Structure formats: structure tokens, C-alpha cells
Amino acid sequence: MILFAVGLGLVLLAGALGWALARHPSAADRVFMWGAIAGCGVALVPAISALAGLTDASAGADVAASATGGLAFGIDALSAWFLVVVLGAGAGIVAFGVPYLGSDSRQRRVRVAHLLLSVLLAALAGVVTARSIVAFLACWEVMALAAYFLVIFDYEKREVWGAGMVYLVLTHVSTLALIGMFAACAPGGVGSRFEDLRQAAAAGWVPTGLVLTLALIGFGIKAGAVPFHFWLPGAHAAAPSHVSALLSGIMLKVGIYGLLRMLALLGAPPVWWGWVVLFIGLASSVLGVLWALGQHDLKRLLAYHSVENIGIILLGVGLGALGVAYHQPAVAWLGVTGALLHALNHALFKSLLFLGAGSVARETGTREIDRLGGLARRMPRTALAFLIGSIAIVGLPPLNGFVSEWVIFRALLGTGSAGGSLRVAAAMAVGLALTGGLALACFSKLYGVVFLGRERDASLERAGTADAALAAPQVFLAACCVAIAVAPWFVISAAARTARIVVPDVSAVPVGGAPLAGASWLTALSVALLAVVLALMGARRLALRGRARRSSPTWNCAYPATTARMQYTASSYADPLLVGFGALSGVRKVRAAGSVHTEPMELVLDRLARPFWNRLLRAAARLRPLQSGGMRWYVVYAILCLLGLLLYLRFVALS
Amino acid sequence: MHSFHELILLLVVLSDFWVLGTTRLSSTIRATAIQGVLLAALPIALYLHPSVHLIGLALGTFLVKAVVLPYFLTRAIREAAVRREIEPLIGFTASLMLGAAAVALSFAIAPRLELGSIPSAMLVPVALATVIIGLIVLTTRNKALTQVVGYLILENGIYIFGLTQAERVPFLVELGVLLDVFAGVFIMGIVVFHINRAFDSLDSALLTELKD
Amino acid sequence: MLRAILGLFAILLVAPIVPGIANRVKSALTGRRGAPVLQLYADLWKLWRKGVVYSPTTSIVFRLGPAVLAATTVLATCLLPLDGATSLVGFTGDLVAFAGLLALGRFMLVLAALDTGSSFEGMGASREVTIAAFAEPALILCFTVLAMATGRLQLQDMLGPPLAQAWLAAAPSLLLGAASLFVLSLAEACRVPVDDPLTHLELTMIHEVMVLDHSGPDLALVLYAGALKMTLFGSLIVRVLVASVAVPAPVALVLLLGGLALYGALVGTVESGMARLRMNRVPQILVAASAIAGFGLILLLK
After folding, report:
1. pLDDT-derived band of residue A64, with 50, 70 and 90 as boundaries?
2. Chain A residue with minimal CA distance to B139?
3. Would residue A638 count as lying in a domain?
């Protein structure tokens, strides 16, 4: 635990120094970057050793713990898993953020942003290791506020300010729900430890349904599940790219951590709650990727994809809950393992994609997809890393996205052999396949339009940024994805053992149903794929020896005078799919004389949240006359309250 | 008369009614002064073996409530050059009837409130009645000075209430006296800054901008 | 093991005949002589020996696309129990790998198409992924029906001996699944009514327009992969139907080959009787296929 505290202290110190050394910006940047990365590494050591040293029985026990007063922290398997997510991806994000902001002219703001980043990382680590309610809520609030200030980095722009406001309101609604949740389940009030919660739940004093519903609202808002997701696209698009990576890759996972922690503490969830989570997961995954298809902004598109992936993770969590409720340990084990795996994988490849988007935005000065093109020539390393990220996020073999989706599919289809009404869940596999198909469409569109082909808008600037410094963290994250793809059994076994916290009794699961079964075949598949591709390329080269290899412009059906603007745009690429889904896709077509363009709307925000908010304001305005402004009326209100209380005491309470 | 303190409490209630019924501002101030004297005598009448602390309290109360505050109020009247109260919001007769209702209500509620052992059974109802009457004066009168008098009556009611707890929380009553000092400063403010001249009247009905 | 390898090589060898049979039957039914059944072999041989033309707009992605497509299709073939009992590669949940490998091949082909910077290829890519988005759920739904009927999650078992037992209990669902797979195979193999392989108007193409710029060995790989995919789906259908009779392994392989020929003939017959659907009706036919399989699933859930 000391190592953990030292690591976090190092991160905070690096941030403070980065802020204080304002006169020597380059030195401050270096101090901050290496200090923060070193701090993350040091704090990761106890987490990784906790995961590596797990035995089957010790999954729920804290490997390291410390407590002072009301604040208690500890590292068990679940905390360790999410610490790897937070600090591992966090180190990569710091490594990108420093050179990314280094060229920004508003240096004072950049200093503060570095400090806030270190505070945010420390708060995130605190949330996933908290063991008492006070510690959890304190770190939660610090995390939310630090993230808010980072989101409004460019606060001069109106849309950034608006997005920050929506984020702030929603994160506080989520905090409110969490306070209510803890109030409902804490036997000793706000000073309780999580251990007390577990004992109270085991003794049956906790209204599990109410607590889990509030947990779903609070953590669901933070995780970005439909219908609470509408703060996500604005905030993630408005923030600077490395902050978006942190929000999408790490902060959403904290919501998932909260749900899993509550499931572990409370034991058996009610059946209906599992079904609700399953449906929310399904809706989030399908709607998230559908709405991503219509976006024109690079970062908003990636933000909606986060909604989709959170939906997939929630599918796993829902299956875990259903499996526990229906006493089907195989389904539950696979479901929670898949959710944990996908959380880690998503943190890796979503951070990678956002960092790539940041590089693209820095190089060209725009985030609009339809103006980009042919960037692979200018930014080869970024393009390669982005390709790996794209293949991973679509869930294609052999990369890590496929590994976690494979586990979740097995959980979904495994419900088919379980008895009773759980079998209906097997039909949800269709939804997961649909999101896979839509994600394939979306990312082939994104990668093809942005990096391949020719430049669509020649007037874009060519910043000629140093691709190396910005590309290094992306290559690191891509290498992590490939590593998990090639050797998945380490990660799967660690995840499987961590999942035992939620699913303690897996003795009834046959060997073939365990998460690790078949994992070695995945490696074989990756190797075989690589081998066959290389063999075919080699055969092709052999065949072309001595043959003509000519270069000629693209065929275009023999029409020679095509311009780069005649290439398919991203909007036209996605149009057939969006039209196929009709009004659900939330895209409005605006036809003017000689032009057509599409405008994506945020359906939940524009159709549900804002009208509801306006109606609330109108109803509140009807209470306006009470605030007449005359002082005596306010005193009369006070007298009436006093008299009312006295009468209540006289006639009701004390009689 | 069963005891001296009940007489005092009765006189307090009568002085409340005097304030409710009179139209002349100097009358209200005189009533406040008399209330001050009565309240100074009350702790001594309640606790028949006065300690030094109690005598000091009585002296301090007398000074603040019966001497200092009426003096400031009289000076304020002279500076503002007002003589009479214009017709209040609910009329003088209606005020008196409301005051009587308040007294009846207090005597109805008070026995049910369990407050432990208190020196006299009449303390709580009189305190409640005084508070309510003070609030009535505060809300229904138009002149700022009368509203200050209403506030002072409110405080006196709280002071009486505090005497019920004086054994347990000895400093509570002193704090009540401190509150009177605060009121005195407030009145000084009216005098010193000539609210009258700044706003062309002491009519607080014109203070309607307390909203957004 | 040896049998599995033998089955794999047999299918890999036989794959180009299946489209040939389909084309020949279609021509015969419409009163023409049509191309020889072994035409695709000749085309592949010719293309393999040709030179290649690349556009300067393209990058390494364009050169990788056909190779990855072919590799993934071949690996997907390894997952099927072609002789009715064992597959070369098998593990729990490998049906997801099957769908995933085909999707990877499609992804790289689409990227190669966008790499050329041509609006025609972009159009083809757009249509291809639209159809794929509706085809994926249909495939997984059929696999779900098979998984629930047999109670296994491995293709080797789902199409192997346990399927024979499942036929006794769940015959209607399996028939519906096979029908759904047939409609799906028409989409995946780019046949009428989804895509007409004989058209020469680029604006009406889906798959062919996507590979306009490939030439030489690359085009050979693409064409072979297309034929292999059609054979794969045909094998799926034939295995589902043939498993109703329990036969020893070598006979099953022969039955598979015979069944593929029949499948090709059936495709040709359907092609000759229907016209190409309008582009926006293609998703509807795939949703219909999903609905058929879904109905089979509902029957199983009762």
C-alpha cells in the first residue's frame, strides 16, 4: 500500500511542479511527463502483483489496505484490475498530452491543465480503491470537478461551455443518486466501510432492489449508458484530445467499476435488475453505433462509439447479474469476465483512437471528417496505430476487441443451454452481431475517408507536426492491443479470477465452460492468420517476378478528370444505412438549392431532455408570484411555517 | 396573585396589546421601555435566590432594553420627524383581535409542548404570544421604526423563552441580550444614515426589490 | 485429423466449381449455352500469370486487402467439420471466430476499395457494408438456432453428430434455419436477387465495382475468395440438412461434395427465376431472412 501511496504522491507532485515551474515551460513539461509516468508505474506495481498472485480463494480479500479516520483504501482483485486500466492507459495519455499541449500558446492555462490532469488521475485511482463511503464520495467529486475543468479548457467557445454545463449538471445528478444509494444501504450512516455494507447485505437488512436501481442511475450516468448518455458526445468532443481519451477510456469505466463493486457487496441481485441492465446494454450498443454513423465530427463519432462499447460491457454485467440470480454460474462467470476484459480493451483502443484523432486535428486544424483524406501518407505511424485501433474496436479477429466480444458471445449463447426464462437472453446475440456489423461500417468509413484516398479539401493547413512525439504513445497502446491479441490467456485468466469477486462459486462450471477454455486457440488463430497472409503475399510476389508492374491513375471507369472532391464522402457512405434505420438514426437532411447536407441530432438531448427541462422551467415559473419582493410577505411565510409546525406538534406529533 | 412573576408576565402581555393598539410612535417606544423593565425584573422574581450572575443579567437587561434602546428609538423619531403611524395593513382593531387570537392559540398549544422542568407554567404561553404578536407588528406596520419595535417585541418573547432553559444553558439568555444590542446598532443605522432622507420616506412598502 | 485435412483440401480445390455450376444452370434455364463449368479455374490461372497495375493513390492497404480476404476465408473453412465429425481447428465459441474472420476479410477489402480514391469503389464499399450490417445478425441468428438446438457452442459439434440428435427434437427450427441460411448465402455470394454477377453497369454493382482496380494475382485472390465464400455457405446449408441422416465420416464428405453441386444448381435456378432487387429492398430481404431464423428460434424457446 505504501508503494501505491508513493506512486500517487509522485503523480501529484509532478503535477504541482509542472504548474509551479511556469517560467521554464519545457523543463516543467519534462518534469511533469516523466514524473507522472513514473508515478503511474510505481502505483501499478502493487496492482499487477495483486493480479498475478491471485489464487482462486483470495479474490475478494484486500491485498493491501490502509485506513485513517473515515478514509479507508484497499486493493483487491477488482480494484487492481481497474487500477491497471486507470494507470496503464493514464500513463499513455500523459505521454501524449504533454507534447500535444506543448505547442499551445496559452501557457498559463496549460500549466493548470497539467496540474488538473495529475489530480484527476489520483482521484480516479482513489475511487477504484476506496473502501469507505466518505473516501469514495470525496474522490468521486474531486474526479468529477477536475474533469469538468479540463473539459472547458477552451472555454471561449460557446459549444465548449454548453457541453461543460450539461456534463456538470449530469455528473451531479449521478452523485446525488449515489448519495441516495449509500444512504439506503449503509447501516452505520455515512461513516460506514464497505465491509459493513457487505455484512448488512448478508444479514438481509438492505433493500437490494432500491439500492441497485439507484446504483444503475448513478453509475449509468457516469458510464454513459442510454438514456443517460447525452452529456457524453458534447463533453468528449469539446475537451482537448488527451482529456477526451481519458474521459472515454477511463472515466466511463469507473461507472462499470461501481456497478461491479455494488454487485460484489450486495450478493444476489433481483432478477428484474439483471434484465434491465441487459436491455440497457443492448440499447446502448445498437443506438450508440447507429448514432455514431451519422456524425461529421471525428471526436463526436468516437464518443458515440464509447456509448456502444459501454453497452457491450453492460451486456456482460447484465449477464453476470442474471447468471447469479438464476443460479447459472457458467453464464455469470463468462459475462463478468467478458465485461472486465472489454473494459480493459476499450480503455486501450479508445484512448489510442482519441490520441490519433488529436494528432489528425493538430495536423490539419479541423475535425470534420468530410474535409480530410489521404492522411496516411503524411502521418504513417499514426495511420498504422489507428488501423490497429479500428480493427480492435470493430471486434475483428485477431485483436483484443475480438477476445472480449468472444467471451461475451459465449456468455450470451451459453444462456441457451440454461433452463428457464434465461434462455430468452440468447436472442440478444443478434443485437451484438448488429452492433458489430454497424461498427464495421462506421470504422471502415472513418479510416477510409480520413486516412486513405486523396485529400478532399486542399485548403487545409499542413502543420507538419512532429509525428514522432505524438505517435509514440499511440504505438505503445497499439502494441498493448496486439500483445493481448497474441497472448490472451494471461489477461483472460486474470479477468476470470477477478470475476470470482462477483461470482464466488464456480465449482459447478464444466471445464469447457470456463472463460479460459479455448484461449490458446486464439493465439493459434492469430499466428495462422499472419502465416497465411505472409504466405499469400509471398506467393503473389513470386507470381509477379518478371511481370509488368505498371502505375496508372485510378480506373474510375475510364473517366480521367476526376478530382479529389469526387470521392465518396463519409456522409454518403453512411447514408444507405441511416436511411434504412429511419427516424431512429437522428439525422436530418437539409436540402438547399444545389446542395444537400445532413445534420446529426442528439436525439435524447433534443427530443427528451431539453423539452422536459423547459417544461420544468415553465412549471417553476408559475410559482414566481410567491417571490413578490415585499419584505413583509417573506416574514408572513416564516410565521405561517412556524404556526404550521406548532399546530402539527400540538395535534399530530405529540398526541 | 400566586406569585410575583405571574403578575409580571401578565403585564408583559398587556404591553404587547398596547403596542398593537396605539397609533402614536412615542407610545410604542414607551411600551417597549416598560417591557424592558418588566423583563429585567423577571429572572429575579423567578429564581428567588438570586446569584451574582442573575443580578448582573437583570441589570444588563434593564440597561439595554429599558434605557439604551428606547433612547435610540426616540432619537430616530426626532431625526425622521414622524409622529404617527399611518393605517397599517390590517387596521388597528383587526390587529387587536389577531393579537387576542394569538394569545389564545399560545395558551392552547403550550401545555402539550414537553420541555422538561420549567420554573413557571406561564412562561411558555406568554413567550409564544409575545413572539407572535411581535411578528404581527413586524409584518403589518408600514413605518420602519414600528417594524423595529415589532422586532424588539419578538426578541423579548425569545428572551422569555430562554428563561425557561436558563438553568441548563446559562448563556442563552445573555445571547438574547446581545441580540438586542444588535438591534440597537441597526436603529443607529437608521439614524446615522438617514434612511428617511435617502429614500424620501421610511415607508418599507417601497422596499419591493427583494426579488430577481 | 488426416480426414480433416483431406476435407479442407477437397473443399479448397472444389470451390471454383460451385459458381460455375450456378452460372451453367442459370444459362441453361434461360435458353443459353453459358460458360463452361470449369471457367473460373481458367480465369484464375490467366489472372495469376498476368502483370499488375497500381494507382499512385493507393497504399499498402490496397496490396494487403486481397491477401487478407483470401487468408481469412481459408481459415474460416478450417473451422467447419467438412467430413461431418471433426474440424481442423475447433474451440468453444469458434462460431464467433467464423463470423469474425469473414468480417475481417470484408473490412480489409472495403478499405482497399476506399484506398483508390474513386467514387465508384466508394459506392461499392458503402453498399457492401450496408448489406453486411444486415447480414451479420442473420448469420449469428442462424448460429444461435443451431447452438440452442444442439446445446453446443463449437461448430464441430453444432454441425456434427449432435446435430443428428437435434433433428429428432427440433426439425422445424432447423429447416427454417437452413432456409434462412440459403437467403443469406445469396447475399454473401453476391448472387441475384442481391447482386447480379453478370451486369456490366458499374452503378448497379455491389461487389464487382468494389474490386474494379484490382488486377493480376490480386484479382485472382479476390475471385477465389468469393467462390470460396459461396462454397462455405453452401457447405453450412448442406451440413445442416445432411446431418439429419447419421452417416460415417467419409460418406459424409462425399455427400457434402454432392450437396454442393446441388446447392449450386439451386442457386442457378433461383437466379434464373428472379430479377435483381432494388437497392433499398436488399436490407428488407435480409431482415426477412433474420425473421425466418428468429421464428425458428422462437419455436425452440417454447
Report:
1. low
2. A632
3. yes
Residues 6 or more apart in contact with residue B6 via CB below 8 angstroms:
B120, B122
Q: Are C233 and C189 in contact (CB under 8 A)?
A: yes
Q: How many CB atoms lie within 10 A of CB A65?
A: 14
The C-alpha torsion from A74 through A215 and A165 to B209, rounded to 10°, is -110
Chain B nearest-CA distance from A653, in A, is 10
> Strand C52-54 vs strand A595-600: parallel, antiparallel, or unpaired?
unpaired
Distance from CA of B40 to the nearest CA of A (A): 27
Residue owning grid cell 491479441: A485
Q: What is the mean pLDDT of chain B?
A: 79
Assess contact for A240 and A153: CB atoms under 8 A: yes
DSSP string computed for C112-149? HHHHTT-HHHHHHHHHHHHHHHHHHHHHHHHHHHHHHH
Q: Is the peptide bond before A380 cis (omega within 30 degrees of 0)?
A: no
Rounded Cα distance between A289 and A311, Å, is: 10
Of residues C296 and A596, which shows the higher confidence score?
Answer: C296
Confirm whether pTM is higher than 0.95: no
Residue-wise pLDDT for A185-196, tens only, equals: 877 766 778 888
Contacts of A544 in chain C (CB under 8 A): 51-52, 216-217
Q: How far is CA A484 from the centre of its chain?
A: 19
The answer, yes or no, to whether residue A650 has pLDDT greater than 80, is no
Residues A608 and A476 in one domain: no
Are residues A475 and A385 both part of a single domain? yes
Give me the amino acid identity at A292.
A
What number is the average pLDDT over the span A248-258?
93
Can you tell me the distance from the alpha carbon of C154 to that of C160, in angstroms, rounded to the nearest whole number? 10
Number of domain units in chain A: 2
Give residue A568's region: left, alpha or beta (phi > 0; psi -120 to 50): beta
Nearest to A397 among C100, C141, C221 (CB): C100
Residue numbers of the domain that contains A298 = 271-504+515-534
Q: Where are the domains of chain C?
A: 2-301
Rounded to 5 degrees, what are φ and ψ at A187?
Answer: -70, -35
Residues in B touching A627 (Cβ below 8 Å): 211-212
Task: Give the pLDDT of residue A57.
Answer: 46
Query: What domain range includes position B117?
Result: 4-206
Contact assignment for B139 to A636 by CB distance below 8 Å:
yes
Residue C157's pLDDT band (cuts 50, 70, 90): confident
- Please indicate if any CB of chain A lies within 8 Å of the CB of B97: no
Please report residues of C whose CB lies closer than 8 A to that of A430: 137, 140-141, 144, 290, 294
State how far the Cα of A283 lies from the Cα of C281, in Å rounded to an integer. Answer: 25
Q: Find all residues with CB under 8 Å of A468, minimum gap 6, and list them.
A: A381
Q: What is the pLDDT of residue B26?
A: 86
Number of domains in chain B: 1
In a domain, B211, yes or no: no
A610 & A473 share domain: no
Please give the interface size between A and B, counted as residue pairs whose CB atoms are below 8 Å apart.
49
Q: CA B36 to CA B176: how far, in whole Å?
A: 13
Average pLDDT over residues B27-34: 91
> C121-139: per-residue pLDDT in tens?
889 999 999 999 999 999 9
Q: Of A188-192, B93-97, B207-211, which gets the smallest average pLDDT?
A: B207-211
* Cβ <8 Å between B114 and A654: yes
> How many whole angstroms separate alpha carbon A441 and alpha carbon A585?
14
Indicate if the pLDDT at residue A408 is higher than 50.
Answer: yes
Query: Per the domain annotation, does A244 fall within a domain?
Result: no
State which residue of chain C sits closest to A512, comparing Cα positions.
C92
Model ipTM over 0.85: yes
Q: Are residues A373 and A495 in the same domain?
A: yes
How many percent of chain A have pLDDT more than 70? 96
